Amino acid sequence: FNDTATTEIYTLSLHDALPIFSHELRTPLTVTKNSIELIMDEEDEEVRKEFLNMSLRALDRQNKIIQNLVDAASLQKKAMNLHFEDLDMVEVLSMTLDELKDFADSRNVKIKSKLPKDLPKVRASLLEVKHILFDLIDNAIKFNKIGGEVTIDAKHKGEFLEVSVTDTGAGFEKEYNDRVFDRFYQIVATADRSYEGMGLGLGVVKDLVEIQGGSIWVKSEKGKGSIFTFTLPVKIQ
Question: How many CA atoms lie within 13 A of 134 on its CB side?
Fold first, then answer.
């Protein structure tokens, strides 16, 4: 985003979304294929390593796209089986940030974790909590400015733990705060849809939060960034 960009809204039917699905699934494969072809002819070890890292990032992103599709289908059919356990949010966040480090570095975005060490554990599913954190932080990096910051903090509020992901991107108009969680809905800065994605991520995140007994919302303002906040029930003492 940039501060002078024109905000445009996309709400897609499944039929209209199919070309986007195809593009999003093919792009990481194309990147990986091209990288491998370059590696085969490259003798410089550092350059080869960079091409390998590029391939890994592309495949990680495709894996996340596929996981969003699987989760969206499972949630729609109410067929998702969750394994609830007592989770330390600091530990889960640390695992998630390890997976996003290369992406943040590639965008020169600094990530700050401000989670207190004495937070109560949440009663939730590890894979789903990682999915929630990954998508929110991934978006905060992707829609941030080059050289921006992402801050994650949390606080204990009664029966819930409240986690917030704040970015220094351009944000969007307040009237879109509720609609960003709709399926196949995207807010983009320009008409060329320069940001990747299928408009599924935040819809899936909302469902994953709610089926674990929590809630999610966003506060965003044009030119001032966004704050995505979600809650999860804390462990019963």
Answer: 23
- Predicted confidence at residue 229, as pLDDT, reads 97
Taking 60 as the threshold, does the pLDDT of residue 173 lie above it? yes
Residue 51 CA to residue 41 CA, distance in Å, equals 12
Give the number of other CB atoms < 10 A from CB of residue 105: 12
Q: In the predicted model, is pLDDT for residue 132 greater than 90? A: yes
| DSSP assignment letter at 144 | S
DSSP state of 176: G
Q: Strand, helix or coil at 179?
A: helix
- Say what the pTM is: 0.69
Residue 132 and residue 205 in contact, taking contact as beta carbons nearer than 8 Å = yes
Q: Decide: helix, strand or coil at residue 16.
A: helix
Write the DSSP string, 109-124: -EEEE---TTPPPEEE
Model confidence band, residue 154 (pLDDT cutoffs 50, 70, 90): very high
Q: How far apart are CA 94 and CA 10, in angstroms?
A: 33
